[in-house]
Amino acid sequence: MKKVVAALLLTTCAGAVYAQQALKPEEMIKYRKAGYSFMAWNMGKIKANLEGTYNKEQVIAAANVVAATANSGMGALFGAGTDKDVGGEKTRVKPEFFKEQDKVKELAMAYIKEANELQKVAATGDAAAVKVQFGKTGESCKACHDKFRKD
């Protein structure tokens, strides 16, 4: 039974890797923009709750999406050919992004850490703590934008 499960797992992983590699550059740009837009929308929902009536469940749901997206492996969507507009998809990534991979990794890991912490803090229901962590998460996101995103 263990061999069957292992074989299925390997087949699934191989299929996922193949599907990812089969993406055209314009598809990678499209999907990463969609992912970041969805994450931004959920950050906006958290911000609205912090500025208005605080709804713990909405904040938890939004923080879960932010963390899940941050941990989803979106870095794979910055493949070859996605450094410029292609196939009708525009990108705002600076060329430096593809040349400074150590800095990209550092900033990405910092964002993932803060997004995961936001998820944990949101689960407590403590609005004041969420506000502090929301700020840290936003700053880590902004750090990458400042370094690697065109206006």
How would you characterize this protein structure?
The longest helix has 27 residues, at about 25-50. The protein has a single domain, classed as Up-down Bundle (Four Helix Bundle (Hemerythrin (Met), subunit A)). It has six helices and no strands. Mean pLDDT is about 90; it is low at about 5-10 and about 10-15. About 75% of the residues lie in helices and about 0% in strands. Helix 2 runs antiparallel to helix 3. The chain is an all-alpha fold.
Q: Quick summary of this structure?
A:
The protein is an all-alpha fold and 151 residues long. 74% of the residues lie in helices and 0% in strands.
Protein traits:
151 residues, mainly alpha, Four Helix Bundle (Hemerythrin (Met), subunit A), elongated, electron transfer activity, Cyt_c_prime_subgr, iron, Cytochrome c, heme
Question: How many strands in all?
Answer: 0
The CA-CA distance between the termini, in Å, is 54 Å
- What does the main sheet amount to? none
Radius of gyration: 18 Å
Strand content of the residues, in percent? Answer: under 5%
CATH architecture: Up-down Bundle
Could you state the CATH homologous superfamily?
Cytochrome c/b562
Oligomer: single chain
CATH top level is Mainly Alpha
Please name the CATH topology.
Answer: Four Helix Bundle (Hemerythrin (Met), subunit A)
State the shape.
Answer: elongated
Low-confidence stretches: 4-9, 11-15
Number of domains: 1
What is the average of the pLDDT values?
A: 90
- Tell me the structural class: mainly alpha
Order of helices and strands: HHHHHH
Q: What is the number of helices?
A: 6
Helical residue percent band:
over 70%
Signal peptide: 1-19
GO biological process, one term: electron transport chain
GO molecular function, one term: iron ion binding
Protein name: Cytochrome c
